[in-house]
Amino acid sequence: MKVLIFGATGTIGRELVTQGLEKGHSVTAFARDPSKLAISHASLEILEGDVMDSVAVDRAVADHDAVLIALGAGSKGQVRSTGTHNIIQAMQKSGTRRLVCLSTLGVGDSRGNLNFLWKYVMFGMLLRAAFADHVSQEDHVMRSGLDWTIVRPAAYTDGERTGDYRHGFPATEKGLKLKISRADVADFVLTLLADDSYIRKTPGVSY
Fold first, then answer.
1. Which residue of 17, 34, 57, 76 has the fewest C-beta atoms within 10 A of its own C-beta?
2. Which of 76, 86, 8 is nearest to 53 (CA)?
């Protein structure tokens, strides 16, 4: 497939680019500073642009089979939701329908998967703005009318890609470690390009 990745220079984005190329996809990486990617491949195209610039996003989205959103803004807000809104509008204009968007475990009905620390300390206080940004981002995606999947990963680690993780579990699931490697998150996201079972669903992913 011809896949466009937003947030390509982030920690998840680089994994998506690398693994996407390994799987034989033609990958377009969209980034404000392409020099941060430091990946060269015959099937990789790098586009410089800002996701907050709707004109640049419109140009990037055209002629792609699928779009992956891995936007990050640290503890800040607005970049994910506003950027995702711009991406959705561009997809609606171009006719590109497949969208996979990274959010976070704890949004919506997945709140039940979190422990006290994540519910009340991390998302309740320290990361409140980032959490609100994810909530708004998901709202844009769910109202888009596209063939979307929202992936809700647990806390990121720097571990290896194992392919051995839990996904699509209910909010009542017990025994989750509430962490997952960035490499395994990317692995799961890329499997969704050949799997329609999670279209218009919000699978969590965790060890």
1. 76
2. 86
Cα R_g (the chain), whole angstroms: 16
Q: What is the pLDDT of residue 120?
A: 61
**66-110 residue pLDDT tens:** 999 999 865 556 789 999 999 999 999 999 999 999 999 988 788
Pairwise CA distance, residues 84 & 73, whole Å = 13
Over residues 139-152, the mean pLDDT reads: 97
Separation of first and last alpha carbons in the chain: 28
For the chain, domains (ranges, CATH) are: 2-206 (3.40.50.720)
Distance between CA atoms of residues 171 and 188, nearest Å: 19
* Strand-pair partners of 153: 205
Distance of CA 116 to the CA centre of its chain: 25
